[in-house]
Amino acid sequence: MGKVKAFLDTNVLVDLLSAEPRPSTRASELIFEMARRGFLEAVLTVQSIIDTAYIIRHSPDSLNAMRNKLMVIQRYVNIESLDFFDLQDALQYPSSDFEDCAQYFHANSVSCDVLVTSDRKFKSWHSPSEMSVLTPGRICQEDDGAAAGAKSREYPISTTGKISRVC
Questions:
Q1: DSSP symbol at 126
Q2: Domains in the chain: ranges and CATH
Q3: Which residues lie closer than 8 Å to 100 by C-beta, 6 or more apart?
């Protein structure tokens, strides 16, 4: 079995880059570590990066730290743009969360195996396909190959060190 191709929803990036620890911070750090080590293929959209910058914009230090971390992250995460067809699909889908819908259709269009999100409402509306929707904690618990190895003590990740510890 090849590498899992995982689409990372905006909240996974926010977990990683936020100054305040969140419930999924540790699992999100582990996902980025798995991508850095080549155990999974991670995909983000440019829109997620822009939205994350907006969410954590509270201080210039946060934005500068985010810029520095993104310079490292872009080396091992595929960063893609939403396209016209993703937006058209999202517009036609009956959902109250347009952003989630657009992200989902993009993940599906680039053949991701799994969409990782800590948005508990995400599962209640996504359309049926072969793509799974998992929380950051759940993908780290998967027992197949890379995820199981990354879960072990072999890859300690500090919740205080965040990405600087990972990279």
A1: P
A2: 4-166 (3.40.50.1010)
A3: 9, 117, 119, 121, 122, 125
* CA separation, residue 63 to residues 72, 88, 166 (Å): 14, 32, 19
Block residue for tokens 């510890």: 165
CA distance 64 to 70: 10
Which tokens sit at 25? Answer: 């911070």
Q: Which of 150, 166, 154 is nearest to 40 (CA)?
A: 150
pTM over 0.85: no
* Rounded distance between C-alpha atoms, residue 103 and residue 109, angstroms: 10
C-beta neighbour count of 125 within 10 angstroms: 15
Tell me the pLDDT tens digit for each residue of 124-167. 556 666 688 889 988 887 533 444 333 332 222 223 322 222 32
> Sheet holding 40-45: strands in order across?
78-80, 40-45, 4-8, 114-116, 132-134
Query: What is the spatial distance between Cα 101 and Cα 122, in angstroms, rounded to a whole number?
Result: 9
Residues in the chain: 167
Instruction: Return the SS3 of 90.
Output: helix
8-state DSSP, 9: P
